[in-house]
Amino acid sequence: MFSIRKAAQGDIPLIRELCFKVWPQSYASILSQEKIDYMLDLMYSSDSLEKQMDSGSQFIFVYEDEEPVGFAAYFEKAPAIFKLDKIYILPSQQGKGTGKFVIGYILDEIKQRGATSLQLQVHRLNKARNFYEKLGFVIIDEKDFDIGNGFFMNDYVMEKVLSS
Fold first, then answer.
1. 21 — alpha (psi -120 to 50), left (phi > 0) or beta?
2. 144: Cα separation from own chain's centroid
3. What is the average per-residue pLDDT within 34-49?
4. Is the pLDDT reported for residue 164 higher than 70?
5. Of the candidates 69, 51, 66, 72, the residue with the CA atom closest to the CA atom of residue 7
């Protein structure tokens, strides 16, 4: 049985713990270790996570029974357009419907706030793209985002238009 709990700044250590269990393994086959280390520091340091929360990013945890098995973050990037900024599920949970449950929860939440679409970015070589496509997301753009230190995120921008 899955449940969702909204995160607060006091939960940053748990976000980081889950991140370090999921993130490096998720990208080891498509990114260099140097780039993984840089991105982890850039996006998942305690200071960075605090700034993301302060600027309106809603972090949530997904639990199976009493055990935290993943997290996600989303925010309103433009009026009625939300961005799923992060979703990471423990490898042992993948394929069990956990990610689908989390995205369903987020879609319900943002619809109540008047959302017309949910967007996300996914690395062009990440197999998660297929997961998103099964949930109704479509590629709307292909971008290379300069994240500093000579690194780029080579992503598809995907979107799910919400029915009213």
1. alpha
2. 18
3. 93
4. no
5. 72
The per-residue pLDDT for range 115-145, each reduced to its tens digit, is 999 999 999 999 899 999 999 999 999 999 9
What percentage of the chain has pLDDT greater than the value 90?
Answer: 87
Whether the Cβ atoms of residue 59 and residue 7 lie closer than 8 Å to each other: yes
Helix (H) or strand (E) holding 103: helix 98-111
* Mutual angle of helices 33-44 and 46-54, in 10-degree steps: 50
User: Kind of pairing, strands 67-78 and 138-148?
Assistant: unpaired
Integer Cα distance of 115 and 108 in angstroms: 10
What does pTM read for this prediction?
A: 0.93
Let me know the angle formed at the C-alpha of 89 by 119 and 52, rounded to the nearest 5 degrees: 55
CA R_g for the chain: 15
Instruction: Give the residue among 97, 86, 98, 21 at the shortest CA–CA distance from 59.
Output: 86
